[in-house]
Write a structure and sequence with these properties.
The complex is a heterodimer of chains A (about 400) and B (about 290). With about 400 residues, chain A is an alpha+beta fold. Chain A has three domains: about 50 residues; about 240 residues, Lipoprotein localisation LolA/LolB/LppX (outer membrane lipoprotein receptor (LolB), chain A), CATH 2.50.20.10; about 80 residues, TATA-Binding Protein (2-Layer Sandwich), CATH 3.30.310. Chain A contains ten helices and 18 strands. Chain A has a twelve-stranded mixed beta sheet with strand order 7-8-9-10-11-1-2-3-4-5-6-12. In chain A, strands 13-14-18-17-16-15 form a six-stranded antiparallel beta sheet, with helices on one face. In chain A, strand 5 and strand 6 form a beta hairpin. The longest helix of chain A is centred in the first third of the chain and has 22 residues. Chain A is globular, with a radius of gyration of 28 Å. In chain B, helix 3 runs antiparallel to helix 5, helix 7 packs across helix 9 and helix 9 runs parallel beside helix 11. The two termini of chain B are about 30 Å apart. The chains are: A alpha+beta (about 400), B mainly alpha (about 290). Chains A and B meet through helix 2, helix 3, strand 4 and strand 5 of A and strand 1 and helix 11 of B.
Amino acid sequence: MAPIDSDDNRTAGEGEDLRSGRRRAARYVVPVAVMGVAAATIGLVPAIADSGDPDLPKVTAEQLIEKIAKSDVEQLSGTVKITTDLGLPDLGGLESGLMSGMSGAPGAAGGGDGSAADPSAKLTELVSGTHTLRVAADGPDRQKLSLLENAAEYSLIHDGKDVWGYDSKSNEVYHSTASESAGQPEKEAPATPKDFADQALKAVDDTTSVTVDGTAQVAGRDAYRLVIKPKQEGSTVGAVSIAVDAKTGMPLKFTLTPKSGGAAVVDAGFTQVSFAKPDASTFDFTPPKGAKVTEGDEMTGAPEHEREAARGDVAEELDGLEVIGEGWDSIATFDTGGQGLPTASAGGDLGGFLGSFGDQVKGDFGSGTVFKTRLVNALITDDGRVYAGAVTKDALVKAADAAR
Amino acid sequence: MSRAETRRPVRTPSPLWTFGLLRSELSITFRRWRTLALLGVLAAVPVLVGVAVKIETSDGSSFGGGGGGGEGPAFISQISNNGLFLVFTALAATLPFFLPMAVGVVAGDAIAGEASAGTLRYLLVAPAGRTRLLLTKYATVIAFCLAATLVVAVSALVVGALLFPVGDLITISGTRIGYAEGLGRAFLIALVVAASLVGVAALGLFVSTLTGSGIAAMATTVGLLITVQILDQIPQLDALQPYFFSHYWLSFADLMREPVYWDDLTRNLGLQALYAAVFGSAAWARFSAKDITA
């Protein structure tokens, strides 16, 4: 081993060198084996955990829908993972700026006036990317929804008549009373699988096929899988799959896959859920010392004017709003007043910029631009009509032709 | 050691010997000027952060003027309301670079430093065995991880208590906990931060067995650390990122949620254990078969 030894005896040393070299190499088997075991564990454990859908008594789709409707879960706490992929171009900060602008609220990114803790600005963040939420509920009067961020959290707490929004990153608080903000804060944006499921079940009619497609395990609970599929050809919605808890009838997971295939557009599911009564202290909130508190009423200052003004504009623009078709194929259409792109009024440059995202199409109706996402497509004709819906480009063109 | 033991005809190393070796390693490491200087710099970070926040908020305004906030290390906006948050901010500020750099210096020096000083063979003359020497070195590095983290935490605790009010604190989930529980959580966070450094320590020890130059080992370890931190920022590598030792470092903040969110914390600890096992055994494979020429 040591140089002194090998100097003594060269001929015997060579054979020994080879052997000791092999022995040295053999030692590296240990770290490689450790890595191999770790890789196997990481790869196999989820596969083992996933295997074996639970055996549950058979139910029909009608019974399952009824079960969801009758579900009276009032107390729960859990963690929800929500992933949305609308296929919008990833614009980073600009996107969230636009989103908060769209919701008509002075967002944190929008301007210095607004509160970073304003719920409507915060919850629109859910529109893209993957987020982890925590939900807790104890009856209709007490709910909490927390958006987990990096080393920070945004909490929306509804306790009796108070609604608190707390942004721990900026240490800002938003406060309003429940009657003003129309009851439950959760209703501002769908966040839990139940919210999504309610929306989807509203659309169930004779244009839809509803089936029970076996069972699944969600968050460690046995669940039925309800699959809703549009029958119509033009829809971009491939299927909606809802995992319904077998015991309580509570939707645990919601997945919307587009017809074009690929990743789900919306995937929201509990990763952990408990139907026990949450700790009462969960809903207790007093603004921390030194935190900036924005009252909901204060927000009705200058920004509210803008908001109302904006709403007025939109209402005016949407005056001629009509819905063509039915069920999943329905297309909303309205006249923007002969101006091509509606955003052109906001600024010619921006209009051109938006135009570059779209596809030019021609038909009997004339020509126009189609803006595509993975779910919703919109056709804006050159003479200013807008057709939008969760339908394919062809269906939009057909609708425009028919309207002509 | 007792007399009876030293008179034994064949000296088999007793288990206590390991502790003797560890004790001498610890005292050598912690008596070095280099180590003391590193700890001094780490202790100064909370002082700097605390004084900066104090000056900015001395006119009664909240940090960042209250307008949008959210810049800077985690928890910084809460410091002026509760001094205990300085502990979390200081740890969040030092964890990405300062702490692992200090650990990298100590770990990189562990074997290679002895080799370049020509003292490694004298250590091996003692009947300790290479594996035991390596384990002792690793234990010393881990002791340094803990000491460095506690230096930051204690310094921040003292500075925070001197400059800012203390009392009940609000978790980032908006619930209120008492000061005693807050202290408990701060201690737990310090332990988690120290455990987060175990992976870098093992990596540094492995690099240290590869070379005979202490400086080269330190530079390589710190270089690897910076490389991984940069790669962790590149969105295109998100498939690999969960396996970077630094990926879940800031998950210690999850201990401040109510209820605590354990998913990333356990992932972090598991990842550190994996790094320790892989690079620890690689260091053993290298060191136990290495020709010691210096």
